[in-house]
Amino acid sequence: MNRRQPGKRWAGPMEGKDKTILFVDDEESLLNITSEYFQQRGFRVITATNGIEALNTLKDEKVDCCFTDINMPEMDGLQLAEHLRNIDNTIPVVVMTGFPSLDNTIHTLKNGVVDFLIKPVNLKQMEVCVRSVLRERELFIDNIFLKKEVEKKERLERLNTELRNKVDELQIFTRIMEDFTTVQKSFDVFEILVQMTLEIAHADAARFYVINEAVRKPVEVAACFAPPEPASDYSSRLEVPGRRDPFHGAETTESIIMDIALGRDKKPVVISEGGGVIALPAGMRSFLAVPLVIRDKVFGVLTASVHREKPEFSGKVLYYLSFMANKAAYAIENLALYENIYENLLATLDALVQAIEAKDFYTKEHSRQVTGIAFAIAKEMACGQEELDILEVAGPLHDIGKIGIPDHILLKPGRLTREEYETIKLHPTIGADIVGQLGLWEREQQVIRHHHERFDGAGYPSGLGGDNIPLLARILSVADVFDAMASDRVYRKKMDEDHVFDIIRGAAGTQFDPDVVRVFERLYRSGKIHDL
Question: In order along the chain (532 residues), what is the average pLDDT of each group of 10 residues?
């Protein structure tokens, strides 16, 4: 490729000789690439490395549109746009930047900028933009000459409407990008999703459900509702997951969510009252659902619904929310790649654990108690820091698989049938699969999978025995059984702790590792277990 000198002009093929593009950027490589590309497509190209050089060039040249970077030496892109507007307000200016923000967008639009591209810019995207703004310029120039003619009034109004809509679109897209760029925690992503959905879609309710191949029933983890009176403070709209309204958990909408997450299509949908073969719940005007996909796998589904006398959701709203879901997924991936990976993923999974415990008052705080006991045993057994770190993850999440167990079994107050017990026994495998989907924590995954194995090999899910069971799983097993029996449960009252201790000691060598039981006994007799 030939080196391009700033300020130099090139004429392309005859078909584009009457259209001239000015590219202004302090990156010479970008000028070279764009010049070569647009020259081959019939455009005449002029380049400059900053705003002052561009203005000097324009003393002798006429251009049809201008692409400019924002941050440049001597004169930046916004100052250049202001000068261009004073020279010829028909020249469309497109700003290119690697650091988009809502403030920048509004400021640039006030300076006569017609579009806003995010670096790195795709050349085909630039070409589409060039052809679009040139068409718009032609329309704009036509309207300047014809605006005094009454018969052209409607055309001018349509153009103005399109421009206003474009500004609105830019503001929405920039707001989405800005909010998901600055989010600090993975779980905050879900709250932002439902808050912005309520605003963008003008919905009555917005919810985010976790549902995927591991969690096969929708679990609500964030929800937001329109207030009775107008309000700007979204914090007043946030609700605790599980809030009920006439349509929450409706069979029809739940089947739509499951079909998107677990079916083959996995595409966003919008359904309106009387608009198709799927019947919405009585009183619901419109419903939409958008999957949140991470690495080609559905993690959850965002939904919105209109219950009152409001317009039904449009295809444009569905497009906005799909764009937002993509940015949310990208934000989650980015957060998972940086320093706070454990904090963010644990916060997300902890929300699922809380969702489980929120269903059953009797199991509240169980995960925390089990982790504390297991941690004390592991330290007493001189486990290293790596093992303790593994317990800090596996302990709180050891029962996360119960999110995949139906409530009528999980919360049954009486004795379980054989079939129901077999279903309960699936929760270690489900939990390990949930953690495994993150592509991390392989050893933690094994602890979660095997914390219900027995030392004599009669446990589940794999029937491992003795030292074949991971040590930390053997430790967690003792802690889990102690807290379970020493706490109130839906199917029985808690047992006396001394009696529970006797049961555990009596099961050493059969259900439990004798070495772990001996250490547990030492901690119990010293009172350290009671102090946790």
Answer: 45 57 91 91 92 91 89 87 85 81 59 77 87 82 62 68 71 69 74 88 89 82 77 43 46 75 78 70 84 85 83 85 84 65 64 69 73 94 92 87 85 86 92 77 90 95 95 95 79 79 93 95 86 63
* Vertex 219 angle, CA 216 and 223, to 5°: 150
- CATH code of 354-525, in short, is 1.10.3210.10
CATH level 3 topology of 186-337: Beta-Lactamase (3.30.450)
pTM over 0.90: no
3-state secondary structure 353-379: HHHHHHHCHHHCCHHHHHHHHHHHHHH
Q: Does domain 9-180 have CATH number 3.40.50.2300?
A: yes
Provide the residue ranges of all domains of the chain, joining segments of one domain with +: 9-180, 186-337, 354-525
Report the candidate in 36, 16, 12, 64 with the shortest Cα–Cα distance to residue 123.
36
77 alpha-carbon distance from chain centroid: 33
Which residues, 6+ apart, have CB-to-CB distance to 163 below 8 Å? 114
- Under 8 Å between Cβ of 457 and 466: yes
Phi, psi (degrees; rounded to nearest 5) at 228: -60, -35
Beta strands in 226-323 (DSSP E): 238-239, 269-272, 286-294, 297-306
